[in-house]
Amino acid sequence: MTTLITNIQQLIGAREETTLLRGAALAHLPSIKNAFILIEDGIIADYGAMYELELKVPQLPKNIIDAQGQFVLPCWCDSHTHLVFAASREEEFIDKLKGLSYADIAAKGGGILNSAKKLQAVSEDELFLSARKRLEEVSKLGTGAIEIKSGYGLSVHGELKMLRVIKKLKEKSNLSIKATFLGAHTFPLEYKENHQGYIDLIINEMLPVIAEEKLADYIDVFCETGFFSPQEMEIICKAGMSYGLKPKLHVNQLNSIGGIEAAVKLHALSVDHLETMTDNDIKLLSGGTIAGDSPPKGESPAMVGTLLPTAAFFLRMSYQPARKLVDSNCAIALASDYNPGSSPSGNMNFVVALSCIQMKMLPEEAINAATINGAYAMELQNEVGSITIGKKANLIFTKPIPSLAYLSYAFGNNLIDKVMIKGEFI
Ligand code: NIG
Ligand code: FE
Prior knowledge:
Elements: E1 2-12, E2 31-40, E3 43-49, H1 53-56, E4 63-66, E5 71-74, E6 76-78, H2 90-97, H3 102-107, H4 112-120, H5 124-140, E7 143-149, H6 156-172, E8 176-184, H7 195-212, E9 218-221, H8 230-241, E10 246-251, H9 259-266, E11 270-273, H10 279-285, E12 304-307, H11 309-314, H12 322-327, E13 332-334, H13 348-359, H14 363-370, H15 372-376, E14 395-398, H16 406-409, E15 416-421, E16 424-425
């Protein structure tokens, strides 16, 4: 089927070619005023200014949509979520309001362990249905590509259950989905004093089945004081990498304990969170190398730094130093971290607005970080993340708005009129 969209007030993120954006380039968001876009079988076939329409599309298709007054953007690419979970945790939220810290709650058996307990109690089908509902909700908010992690199973059975749910979401959804194995999210209580025992379980019992059933694209570890050390992360990642799973890692959320340095050595695809960054961490993320280390042949050494500002917002922590990271030439992406403990929202519109309001990103920078750079952080840059011929027609149609900056400025308002995934309105 062919669809032509005409009279678009501004077509945002139109690029002939894409690269991972860093430094000053992050603020460059090419757009076309009074534009059209042509979609064939769910794929962007052409685009341009309305005055070029006759030349570029001599034969108009039957299906024409007038987008007068609307901005059209590529859908959000949310490269870090924990969207599969059994139940919400607002009881901990109330505890927090009463003064308990994230660490206090974890020590009480709350936090990730609480989610693991709840996950044990639901069936794979129930888990799938609740996750599919969340996925539908975020797609209506403009998310067209998403990464989803396991990590609330923490047992062979639980982790496989989560990953099978993600696999089913991939099969049933029109969204582009990547799966990450996060068995190393925390140590289950029975392994609290036996770290090696749990690491052995991950390596010997979980990874072989995950590889056999092709259940994951990436491997993740929560590298943090009280969770996994950089050394433990290295061991787990190397085992994952032997099955072809690239690391995408939780580092530097609460403390800087050497996670970035370990991630550079592992040639991780991305390092995520980054609330707590030393100058040396920033230098390493911006492309610094480690003596004696060289990237694998044919691989780009670029590592994306994924900022999760809604987690900082919800936990009342200092925000990620976005300005310093961009100005130091780091390649950054923005993601929602959608999860029941630290970011119970997968609304990327709020992530983008918050990044401007609290981290002083320019609207163009935030949109690039939440689209094309997010696509790079999932290795989906050839499919999504920009208005480029040959990519999926995953498009956000805004309500009539005065300018692009209005999207971040008028935060919390629903400014999306409709969303198209693979050429079809949802
Ligand atoms: O990315 N920090 C580690 N994991 C999640 C939170 C998990 C939870 O609290 O359930 C995060 O913020
Ligand atoms: Fe996370």
